[in-house]
Amino acid sequence: MSSPHARTTGTPRSAIGMIAVAAAAAFLATFNETFLNVALTPIMESFDVDVATVQWLATGYLLVAAVFVPVSNVLYHRFATRPLFVVVVAFLVVGSVIGALAPSFGVLLAGRLLQAIGTGLLTPIGMNITLAVAPREKLGMAMGLVAAMTTLGPSLAIVVSGAMLAVTDWTTLMWVFGALALVVLLAGAVLLRTVVTLGKPVLDVLSFLLVAVGLVGLLYAISTVFSGSVIVATICAVVGIAALALFVVRQNRIEHPLLNLQPFRSAPFVLGVSMLMLGLLFVFAMNVVIPIFLQTVRGQSPLGASLLLAPGILLTVILGPVAGRLFDRHGGRVMIPAGFAIMALFALLVGAAAGHESVLLFGALYIPAVLATALVIGPAQTFGLSRLDRETSPHGVTVVSTSFQIAGCLGTSLAVGVYNATTSLTLQGGADLLSASTSGFRSAAVLVALTSALGIVLGLAATRASKRARAVQAAHAEQAAASGTVRTVEDLMKSDVYALTTEQSVLDALQMFTARGISGAPVLDADGALAGFLSDGDVMRYLSAEHPSSTNIYSFAIGESADLEDAMADLVALPVMRLATREVITVDADASIADAVAVLSDKHLKKVPVVRGKGGPVIGIVSRSAVNRLAISSYLTTRELQSA
Question: Which pTM does this prediction carry?
Fold first, then answer.
């Protein structure tokens, strides 16, 4: 009852559909980040603009997307999941149509920035959906799938756009992306359900403005430091840092912060986000400098450059979920540092092969480099988010989603900046264009190799942090066992209770059970006093009696019963107290664990509400599974420490 993650051994069909939609959303958002990159040259020709102007289609997109990521958390908790998803994806569709029909560069840029708003909101919403519906024991695989789609998006966009530009013009890219977005919109409209308890969080406008100025200032400084004025970049960086500092101060002072900063108190989360950003930086950096190098220096067409990258990209999609399953079983102790090591090694080898005559050797060496990112991006993301509790997870998702945009801007700007700066310096030294450009590419490869080497250090630090956390957990368990502190129900109970109210309907209860992955909940009256307890078994018995065509509630969930419409209409109008058990068996917070075991066993119950004193308020839930976990926790913790 303490988590929105399902605790079943299998994944319900509805959850699989929602995870698939979330993965498609992740792909769609990141796919669009680089989809127009190959088309920048023909766009310049169409609207007669220079490089400094046209690059805003990429930089402006990332900036706006980063600014709107924090807003997603407010919207996610205020509006129902399905209509929110539909509206957000509609931004992508409308922006595509505007861009495809744009009569001027300004209109094209407006359409592109409208798409960016959708991207900034879509990425965290999709991730939150995955966190909400994926079973905890399969969370790594689910997040690995989402991470694979996130990695696939910007990489595959280059391949697809290169192939399309060989046979059509750039406006077709906008139409194709609009069609893809429309398909995802329709899928979300059909498959999604509300997966979060809704409230009325308020958007703090000043916080939004501060984070907007902060992110725009920093990202603009990074994107222009190599190509623009260093003084201007420095001023923008200072303004951005100051705005972000004020943003942090305000979040700690206001009652309803735009972004809860509690995730940053978790060292494993900070390490996970840092490793994630380094993995994404590698992807964005290599995916921008490789096509530039192959087209401008090695004489490859956009299609040829794209096809050279395709094998590694496609294999990465396959490896992503596999890496997630490996993380579920073994953790990231070996996987993440090994992934960074492979990335660093093969980045250097790709740089060395840049001067070789064979572009096939170049492409072959890139395959293991990009494959290794699957060992880093998904596992690092899961490592960080899995260390957060239910309350801070959505805010952690917002941080992770913002890091996607920042990593994209960092990777693109730093790689292109180093490439151009080294090429220019080498040309000034008297080298020819081929040698100078090769030196520029090798410098960019060294840059990503160094960032990957830093990732190895962070991966080892994350391992040490996990070991320390397990050691503390073991020490607490031993201390509790020795001192007898885990001897009352209050020591064992789950304190974050999901409760129903007497005004809710049975259908409301079932929706909460599904969204929270629970099988029952206490019912509280207007004063917060315990009025009853409703379980899915109570509902199943009622349905079997009143609607005999159903053998259990699951037949209704998959729509196989002809009696479904009448039954659902019945549940909408049925108050929870009609089915709830009124004489609720409870256990006092000060009762012993033995007393709780006796109640659960003698009454054949899965869980019992915990109250403070006779007739007191409900302060928690104690379950059979919690008792079982207590019985074996010391053994499992000791075994894990020995194998670490």
Answer: 0.62
